[in-house]
Design a protein that fits this description.
There is one protein chain. The chain is an alpha/beta fold. The chain folds into 3 domains: 1-48, no CATH class; 51-154 and 292-361, FAD/NAD(P)-binding domain (3-Layer(bba) Sandwich), CATH 3.50.50; 156-288, FAD/NAD(P)-binding domain (3-Layer(bba) Sandwich). It is built from 8 helices and 26 strands. The strands form 8 sheets. The protein has a 5-stranded parallel beta sheet with strand order 8-5-4-12-23. The protein has a 5-stranded parallel beta sheet with strand order 14-21-15-16-17. It has a 3-stranded antiparallel beta sheet with strand order 1-2-3, with no helix packed on it. A hairpin with a 4-residue loop joins strand 9 and strand 10 (134-137). The longest helix is centred in the last third of the chain and has 18 residues, at 335-352. The termini are far apart. The protein binds flavin-adenine dinucleotide. The site of flavin-adenine dinucleotide has 36 residues, from helix 2 and helix 7.
Amino acid sequence: MTCSHCSIGVWSSSLEASVVLRNDGSESRGWRDDCRGFSLVCMTSSNPQPFRVLIAGGGVAALEAALALRDLAGERISTTLLAPEPEFVYSPMRVREPFAYSAAQHYPLAEITRDIGVELKQDAFKWLEPEGRVVHTEAGEQLHYDALLLALGAILRPRFKHALTLDDRRLDEQLHGLIQDVEGGYVHKLAFVVPQPVPWPIPIYELALMTARRAWDMNEDVSITLVTPEDAPLAIFGRAVSDAVERLLEEHGILTITSAHCETPQPGQVSIHPGTRRLHVDRVIALPELLGPSTPGVPKAAANGFIPIDVHCQVPGIERVYAAGDATDFAVKHGGIAAQQADTAAEAIAALAGAPIEPTKFHPLIHAILLGGEKPLYLSAHITGGHGSSSEISEEPTWSPPTKIAAKYLAPYLESRDRAALR
Ligand SMILES: Cc1cc2nc3c(=O)[nH]c(=O)nc-3n(C[C@H](O)[C@H](O)[C@H](O)COP(=O)(O)OP(=O)(O)OC[C@H]3O[C@@H](n4cnc5c(N)ncnc54)[C@H](O)[C@@H]3O)c2cc1C
């Protein structure tokens, strides 16, 4: 038979054991149906063929995976990044833009990929042909892979008809006028509402806090209510964080209604379930609902079109296809989680390419910096079930580098770019 990785001849001597024929005619014994256990064979042959990794996406998970693979598998692999946008934008910092702070950082993907030795294709994933290990792109190209990582992010959809639904790509444009109205005393009652399932947990709390502080600074009286299906504020971070955030919200005069589902039957009205409570406000600001990306050819057992993954972030039912980040069916959508999934997938892919590594299982640990209070707060928790355990909150950083998106490779990489840009 032929190696499923590099086309070198492989003879099965039993169901498990196999013998690999090197290009120089000698043999090696192993236990697989391909040459992964014999990667030196591939790399030292006269016609070395690196293992082809295709990463679809150009966001947090995609870049983290590209960096992790460079570290874990080095020259064994060649990586291509397939991304439609020319830039990576650091979206967590966009919440500050409507308050006239400096804009979130934009990083050209062409520079990053050149820097880390990755090929960039500015195009988009259209559909997958798993049998042939081919991705078909929007521009009509066929890209062959030995391993594929889907890091396509989520699709945003407004959930409430009569609300301003946040879109991080134009947050400043959406909220700048509202903040000016708060400053000018034209707006007195605001509701911030969260759909079920809860999308990214952090930004709605930050926006509510920052709006309250801006009103306070301008001596304006604004009543703010935050309505969320979570059973406590930022419940995913566990009890200690929820208690502290609840106090912080109270100190800022924000009324928080938890375990609540809402509708916006008319402009300025929020009806809350269970119960008959109604809020009458000047404006309603909502987080979007998140849906899985369009990926024909990929099995979609999960709700809302998210891509199912196992503990190694592999997509069950298709060989050599992995997924990470907001596109997956993991319930918590968060940059740090996207990065950890990317690292998990990168380990599995590096092992597949023959790197001497034992892939570990995805074991989510969530870190976040909450802005909007007097000082940034550093939140951490292990995620067990739907809640955080080992819940920690601190005014001092508890991870390094202490960035909004905690990512093993991407955070130090971007930090070094930022430092170099200042020189
Ligand atoms: C306002 C805001 C604040 C946030 N704050 C925090 C925070 O403080 N901390 C934190 O950890 N997280 C935060 N998040 C969440 C975090 O940004 C996301 O969880 C994270 O970006 C998810 O990473 P991802 O790679 O899965 O998706 P994304 O970063 O969204 O990247 C998806 C990529 O896929 C590309 N793509 C889309 N379609 C295709 C296609 N067909 N083919 C190829 N590529 C495609 C996109 O162009 C993009 O490059 C925040 C999010 C928002 C919106």
